[in-house]
Amino acid sequence: MSLWKIAWRSIQQRAVASALTSFSMALGVALVVTVLVFFGVLYQSLHRGAEGYDLIVGPRGGTEQLVLNTVFYIGDPVGKLPYQFYKDLEEGRINKNVEAVIPVCMGHIYQGFRVIGTTPEIFDRLTYFGGQSYQFADGENFRAEDPFAAVAGAVAAKESGLRPGAKFKATHGTGQSAARQHEEEFTVTGVLKPTGTPVDRAIFVNMEGFYLIHAKKDQSSEGTEADGTKAAEHTSVPPAQQNSNSHNDDRLQQIAAISATTRAKSEAGSGGKADGDLPQAHSSHSAESHSDACDNHDCQHHDHHDHREVSALLVVVPERPPGLVEKVAFELNNGTFDGVQVQAVVPGRVVASLFERFVGKLEAVLLVMAVLIVVVAGVGIMVSIYNSMSERRREIAIMRALGANRVTVMLVVLLESILLALGGGALGMLLGHGLVTALAPWIAQWTGIAVGLFQFRLVELLLIPGLIALASAVGYLPAVIAYRTDVAEALTANP
Amino acid sequence: MLELIDVRKSFQQPNGNQLPVLDIAEFRAAAGEQVVLVGRSGSGKTTLLHVIAGISRADSGRVKIDGWDITLLSEAERDRFRAEHIGYVFQTFNLLPGFSALENVLVAMRFARGHVDKARARQLLKRVGLEHRMSHKPPMLSVGEQQRVAVARALANKPRLLLADEPTASVDAANQQAILDLIRETCQEENVTLLLVTHAPEVAQQFPRIEYLEKFNRAVMKL
Questions:
Q1: Which residues sit opposite A105 in a β-bridge?
Q2: Is this model's pTM higher than 0.80 or not?
Q3: Which helix (H) or strand (E) holds B103?
Q4: Range of the domain at A116
Q5: How far apart are the CA of A10 and the nearest CA of chain B, in angstroms?
């Protein structure tokens, strides 16, 4: 018979009081566990969003604003980068150690979800959370040749009702500044499977569509938007294409064809395939304009790119040699490219810094509060055992009379305190994880992270030595009383 | 086997004065001997047993058990000595209420040796007629059964000396003789020296050696 069992028998003797004190400890521990798991999920969620690429390149300005806007679609872009910079970086003219460059254009929403202009490569080339490829729950990725195609993230699709074939109109601006809906409709070609990243809550459109929308708007409003924002925020259309309002639709088709042809040439080194993929009307139109104004087209093309802009670039750098990411970032941060100065940041580091500065502090505050509740529960254990000491004096005296020394009876009381704390702690962990499991569907909906009953954080293991230390501290006072018990007096006292 | 020489013990009264309780010039008991100490209430019977068991320390004098002078031992050493060499049967049984009959016996083994001998614990309970009540806790046992458990517990560590403090005083009349017989028989079987205190003449007269505390405790004689 171990001292643990002797302590356990003492607990059983005062089952109700022991259960209540242990339960109060369980509630405290459950709160600690819930806070830990929730913030763990939050941290994981934040980090997931910043995975899949190595650098974010954007205009000089706030680093955190760049990451918040590009990774989490929060707030406004830092500024704009020339489209030509994107092309130069993508084609290796700026840095040869760049494997892939994905542009993102911000500034639109649909039913509260950010609409992001980009290229189809965002889902073809990039991965998320440990190298997983983006998969489509329904439909497929949009094509470069279709300027008004879109892909919806899992949550955005579910909540806005978008599905393949659905059409929607994006609204210019974000949040409260979103005031004007564009007339042009985007057609959804696919819905992504949940990723547990901010991608789930966004809608991605072909950025060529953005450029076309704003080209049309430039023609109608002579370059100035109703809210005072220049149309060039997202696009710049060659002046030659902005002259005739009466042929707007023809112009749009022409721009679409030129845009697609240019992209196809740029990526495939030949315009043949892209032309073949274009809709018939666009192809023929393109062919005409291409033949009769080839020189002009080149000029237009360059001019077109000169005025286009992007919000940021997601850059993939080859894995080897180690340190290449830092090297590329250093070169970009310290260079000037045709008068353009940019900033390149490693998103994971900024996210970690953001988490520590803001979320980490909140976690710390909540943890301190939860730990205080655990300490109060510990004091409850002390009070419970302390109150029982007067009625246990005889029991302790019997043990002493049977040969247990002072230290042994002191240990029995301490072990009792530890058992109550650990028992409550174990129950609390179950309760905490049970609560998290009960909220799992809600968490999965918001973060895409499936939380299970056994979603442990390593830091939870600290609860075990922590509870033992707390139980030892609160059990010390009653243990000392047990230690000091006068055996002869307790034995001769009336039972 | 048991030897008390010039043992004195007094308690401090609330007014600060010392109240002598024990003043024994000499007392001896041989190995395996069964001695009954008779004394009226307040004659120091329980205090004497506590001093012999090492629960209380004598103010002066020597208490030798099997050659060991326990007055020279530290408190922790006396605890250990008591656990290993002395069995104690209390008037009020003093069983641990949260433990079964078997566990009450095992606890005594645990404190004495650090480990338990379940076979011996079962054998002892069987010997006192409780083979079917081993898993019962004290509140579920009759007073007679509780005292039987206490006897088994006192013999758990094969003591050299068994101290019994009015073991039949709290037991109903029907069980008094049975308990007394049990204690004497088991002590005889295990060759244990028995020192039993009582104030009941009918109990005392069954023993071959009867000592009256009033006759050799000078503290009582002075009262």
A1: A117
A2: no
A3: helix B101-113
A4: 55-236+308-345
A5: 6
